[in-house]
Design goal:
Blueprint (H helix, E strand, L loop, with lengths): L2 H7 L1 H21 L12 E7 L5 H16 L5 E9 L2 E8 L5 H15 L11 E4 L8 E7 L3 H17 L4 E7 L4 E7 L1 H6 L4 H11 L1 E10 L2 E9 L4 H5 L14 E7 L5 E4 L2 E2 L1 E7 L5 H17 L5 E8 H31 L2 H8 L1 H15 L6 H14 L1 H15 L4 H25 L10 H35 L5 H5 L2 H22 L1 H22 L11 E7 L6 H16 L4 E8 L4 H4 L8 E8 L9 H12 L6 E6 L13 E6 L3 H16 L4 E6 L6 E7 L1 H6 L4 H12 L2 E8 L2 E9 L7 H5 L2 E4 L3 E4 L4 E7 L4 E4 L2 E10 L4 H12 L9 E5 L1 H31 L3 H6 L2 H16 L5 H30 L4 H31 L6 H45 L1
Parallel strand pairs: 7-23
Antiparallel strand pairs: 1-3, 1-4, 2-3, 2-27, 5-13, 5-14, 6-13, 7-10, 8-9, 11-12, 11-16, 15-17, 15-18, 16-17, 19-28, 19-29, 20-28, 21-26, 22-23, 24-25, 27-28
Helix pairs in contact: 1-16, 2-12, 2-16, 3-4, 9-10, 10-11, 10-13, 10-32, 11-16, 12-13, 12-16, 13-16, 13-32, 14-15, 14-16, 14-32, 15-16, 15-28, 15-31, 18-32, 18-33, 19-30, 19-33, 28-31, 30-31, 30-33, 31-32, 31-33, 32-33
């Protein structure tokens, strides 16, 4: 049944059907989530195993390698990497994108069960966890006030954390920094020993005198009651007066009991003010923006009841950037739609036809919301980018239909006849053009990796929008045209200046086609020259994996020599904070001293020699400089700080953390750690010598100085003291032992016993630490143990079951492709020992793989489009002529990237694949009408000229609406626009060159190929 005829005859039915779609669309719009990126499931499973007291070499041989061996048999595995460090093994199994990770984790657990019995008895059971980017905090808060850090910490843990954790969508709230109350028993060793007592005696006494224990049940007549024995400390004074022996020696006589606070392991500051950090993670699958709104509402309620000396400030909120980026993208789409409608009015010069076509945009978009809802998509940069890219194409089908109806009305046909016949005449062409545009997304089934994850939702959104626009063009447009275009149209155009100009342009174009047909080979030669020149520009464009977004989030990682005290690291961090705070574009400075890198981001502890300064800038629309410019300034200001190794990193440089590691990574594999470390240092110098690299680091960390107490077991056994007792005494003396708990007001606090600070300041104090023996009484530690300073253990990295070293680098001003090429060139002359392998990994490897996949998708798209057109035209030659519009589009695509300064990336490549389906549409409309005219009896040359003149206006209209609709996106306006801009530039540039050149080149190619086909047929028929 002819859809156009049905809708023209049933206008009420058509209007109601459209209203139903609009109604469902608005409902779907309210239920669609909002996020920055599509929901990406990283195909990585980690196996964590603890083995306390074991060195990295022992961890590697006894834990890591057996686990690697069994995991290596799991189906779908792409690679295994591992880190063997002191006390812990971490093995990571990487699978291909698209793998069902629930089954993958089940397979890994089953394999781990096979090896549990082979692991050391003292090793913990391996824990299997999946990697989730949602582990990173979505919101970071800073809390400061005049309470003091200890009181502030307790207030935060009691008043804020529980209220935030109960919110729907919030997974965990981690407190960063702060202090906890602790009852410290600081022992004077000389006084304690003078009474014949030891640290162990003191710990045992505290444990025995502070007790709460169930005692079973007792009966009283018919009642049975539970029994509980208690003997707990009621106050700190009671701990002070604790009797240590039968003569009444009190604890206060040998130790100082302090109701104080735990040792400081981290400092946290917000804009220079010491405070507490809160790191909030959302639940898997929860919507970032919705959860952020709930957090903000809860914080507002808390702040309403706070005094003026208390402050809760936002350090980072991922939702802020999401809302700005999505809002700006939506604004760009709306601006593009208005520009497209303006073009329609200029060409059609009729408000009715403009309104008819203009309705196709909002109706198609709203219908797309319905399809997105049922496909379980969200509003994100990819889906909204797909809608914005498709805005101009949404009217293409409607333009072709209304233009044909309008032309027939001008020629004198009635409104009903023009609506049905006009739409029916072009139905085949617009169906084919829609199918060819949508077909480019089919090859996504055959590609993998990040490109597929990002491309899929964009592809579905564009396809949904295109099919919705096709339905509107074949149903609503003819019906509205039959009702609204019922006046006299021909006379109006005669007095219209634009119409007169349009006629002149149309006649000029007809003459141009005639001239091109007279000099066909010259036209081909000129086009070949343009194409060759565009290819010449490719090396000057550069390449990158994914364009970085200017989120305005910078991380300054500070690392001092291993073993540096926390107080010294804090001084350096304060110096960096002061320098950073002077930069005008800086909004917030959030520092965590005692943690760096991922440890700081996740709210975890770190080393005393590390600090992390998170810098938040004002919105990119409110500053003249980019994040990269400010990073360079921070590098210059901090480069002169002595002893500090400082790295300044753009948090958004890898597109939200989804890229494959650092931009450049050089991996070295081989058997010997010493050789790997030496090669890593040499390669680090090599990489640092390449222009465009910065923050060059190796995976081999500086060895940590460590004091080792080697017990002489012969002596200890002769004295009757086990090694474990010696180790416990050392631990109690230096770090302290939590002997018991002090309960007060419903809370529990540690009672920590250790030597007073004056008794544990240096190694001499450690050597003099006294140990009780049954044979010789009290002896010093140095009598039964050798104490020496050694280099602490380093971690052992493995990749695909081989020991691995890595040299990583960030980029500074140059594109990833050029830097990777220079490094490869230098590696070709690098002397690699036998048995060792060096290659480039990281984002460079990911980019290479993604480009290979997308090239494959590009070729498949071209083949599919050709097949669809061959089926439509029932010809092998005419579709081949249409396909020549693709290389013509390449000219503008490359030229557009070169002129705008964008680099070839995964996003630009996706734009190129989309372009293949777009540029053939105009050629299809042209060739389809040529064939109609030839079937009506016109000669080939005459048909080419007449078809060009008739189809010039719809071709120009569809091309201009598509280009102008994408222009705001191509200009990179607003937050997050850096990601979509290369895609839009490729489409706009390619469509521009293809349209202009196709108008002349296509008739020439059609003529040549058709003539060739006739010659071949003539030879065959002889």
């Amino acid at each position: 049944m002819n859809l156009s005829k049905f809708t023209v005859k049933r206008p009420i039915f058509t209007i109601m059907a459209i209203l139903i779609i609009i109604f469902l669309g608005f409902i779907s719009f309210g239920d669609l989530g909002l996020d920055l990126l599509p929901d990406l499931e990283f195909p990585i499973v980690a196996v964590l195993t603890d083995y306390e007291g074991a060195a990295p070499e022992e961890i590697e041989s006894m834990v890591t390698r057996p686990i690697e061996d069994v995991i290596g048999t799991v189906d779908g595995l792409e690679g295994i990497s591992s880190v063997s460090s002191s006390d812990q093994s971490m093995v990571m199994a990487e699978f291909s994108f698209g793998t069902d990770m629930d089954f993958a984790m089940l397979d890994v657990r089953e394999q781990i069960d096979l090896v549990r019995g082979l692991l050391p008895d003292d090793a913990s059971d391996p824990i299997v966890v999946g990697f989730d980017p949602e582990m990173l905090p979505m919101v970071t808060l800073g809390v400061s006030g005049d309470l003091g850090i200890l009181a502030l910490t307790e207030w935060v843990e009691d008043m804020i954390v529980p209220r935030l954790e109960r919110l729907e969508g919030v997974a965990t709230v981690d407190v960063v920094g702060g202090l906890t109350r602790e009852i410290q028993v600081n022992v004077d060793q000389d006084k304690l020993n003078s009474y014949g007592l030891t640290l162990s005696n003191l710990v045992e006494t505290l444990q025995g005198e502070n007790i709460r224990m169930p005692g079973g049940s007792v009966r009283d007549g018919q009642i049975e009651m539970l029994t509980r024995t208690t003997g707990e400390f009621d106050s700190v004074a009671e701990i002070n007066s604790l009797k240590l022996n039968e003569v009444g020696l009190e604890l206060s006589e040998v130790a100082e009991v302090v109701d104080g606070e735990s040792d400081t392991s981290q400092y946290t500051r917000i804009n220079g003010v010491e405070g507490i950090g809160l790191s909030i993670q959302r639940e898997s699958g929860a919507n970032t923006v919705i959860v952020s709104q709930r957090i903000r509402e809860e914080i507002e309620e808390i702040q309403a009841n706070l005094s003026d000396d208390m402050n809760i400030s936002y350090v980072y909120d991922e939702a802020d950037f999401i809302i700005e980026a999505i809002g700006d993208l939506g604004l760009n789409a709306a601006l593009g739609a208005l520009m497209a409608i303006l073009v329609l009015y200029v060409f059609l010069r009729n408000i009715k036809t403009t309104i008819i076509i203009g309705l196709a945009i909002p109706i198609s978009v709203v219908a797309t919301f319905v399809l997105m809802y049922f496909a379980d998509l969200t509003f994100n940069l990819m889906t909204l980018g797909g809608i914005a890219l498709g805005i101009g194409m949404l009217v293409d089908n409607a333009i072709v239909v209304i233009e044909n109806i309008y032309r027939m009305r001008q020629e004198g046909s009635g409104a009903m006849l023009a609506a049905t016949e006009g739409s029916g005449e072009v139905a085949s062409a617009i169906i084919a053009s829609t199918l060819t545009t949508a077909a480019v997304f089919l090859p996504i089934v055959y590609i993998e990796g990040i490109a597929s994850e990002l491309f899929s939702e964009l592809a579905m959104t564009v396809a949904f929008a295109l099919f919705a626009s096709l339905l509107v063009a074949l149903s609503l447009i003819p019906m509205l045209a039959s009702k609204l275009l019922n006046g006299v149209l021909a006379e109006k155009d005669k007095i219209n200046l634009l119409a007169t100009t349009g006629v002149k342009i149309k006649n000029l174009y007809g003459s141009l086609i005639g001239a091109a047909l007279n000099h066909r080979f010259l036209v081909v030669f000129i086009v070949v020259i343009f194409f060759s020149l565009s290819l010449f520009l490719v090396p000057f464009i550069g390449a990158e994996f994914i364009p970085p977004m200017d989120e305005g989030e910078i991380i300054v990682e500070i690392e001092l020599p291993v073993g540096t005290r926390l107080s010294e690291t804090n001084k350096i961090a304060l110096d960096v904070e002061e320098k950073v705070a002077e930069i005008p574009e800086v909004e917030t400075v959030y520092s965590t001293v005692g943690a760096a890198g991922q440890a700081a981001l996740l709210g975890l502890g770190g080393s005393s020699n590390q600090a992390n300064v998170e810098v938040s800038l004002i919105s990119s629309t409110d500053r003249d400089r980019t994040t990269i410019d400010i990073i360079r300034e921070i590098q210059q200001q901090t480069s002169g700080i002595p002893r500090a190794d400082i790295s300044v990193i753009d948090m958004a440089a890898d597109f939200g953390g989804i890229a494959g590691g650092s931009p450049v990574e050089v991996r070295i594999q081989g058997p010997e750690l010493a050789v790997l470390e030496e090669l890593s240092e040499q390669l680090a110098d090599l990489v640092a010598g390449v222009s465009g690299t910065m923050n060059v680091e190796t995976s081999f960390e500086e060895s940590r100085p460590e004091v080792v107490v080697r017990v002489d077991q012969d002596k200890s056994s002769q004295l009757g003291i086990p090694t474990a007792a010696i180790a416990n005494t050392v631990n109690t003396g230096l770090d302290g032992t939590v002997a018991s708990l002090y309960r007060s007001e419903g809370n529990e606090y540690d009672i920590r016993v250790r030597l007073a600070e004056t008794g544990r300041e240096n190694i001499t104090d450690l050597e003099r630490l006294r140990i009780a023996t049954p044979e010789a009484g009290l002896i010093e530690l140095q009598e039964v143990a050798e104490i020496e300073i050694v280099a602490g253990p380093v971690q052992i990295n493995r990749e695909n079951q081989q020991r691995t070293g890595t040299v990583s680098s960030d980029l500074d001003g140059r594109d990833l492709g050029a830097v990777a090429e220079d490094i490869e060139a230098k590696l070709s002359g690098f002397n690699i020992p036998e048995g060792y392998l060096v290659n480039i990994t990281g984002e460079a490897e990911e980019m290479e793989e993604a480009f290979a996949d997308l090239s494959y998708a590009f070729i498949l798209a071209v083949v599919l489009i050709y097949m669809i057109m061959a089926a439509q035209f029932e010809s092998l030659i005419h579709p081949f002529a249409i396909m020549f519009s693709v290389p013509l589009a390449v000219i503008g695509a490359i030229g557009g990237l070169f002129i705008t300064g964008h680099r070839l990336s995964v996003i630009a490549f996706i734009g190129a694949i989309m372009l293949v389906g777009i540029v053939v549409n105009n050629a299809i409309v042209f060739v389809d009408y040529v064939n109609i005219l030839r079937n009506n009896g016109q000669e080939k040359r005459e048909a080419l000229i007449n078809a060009g003149m008739v189809r010039l206006r719809p071709i120009a209209m569809t091309a201009l609406t598509t280009m102008l609709a994408m222009l705001p996106m191509a200009m990179g306006l607003g937050e997050g626009a850096e990601v979509q801009a290369p895609m839009a530039v490729v489409v706009v540039g390619g469509l521009l060159s293809s349209t202009f050149l196709t108008l002349v080149f296509l008739p020439v190619v059609y003529s040549l190929l058709d003539g060739l086909a006739e010659s071949i047929k003539g030879l065959i028929s002889r």
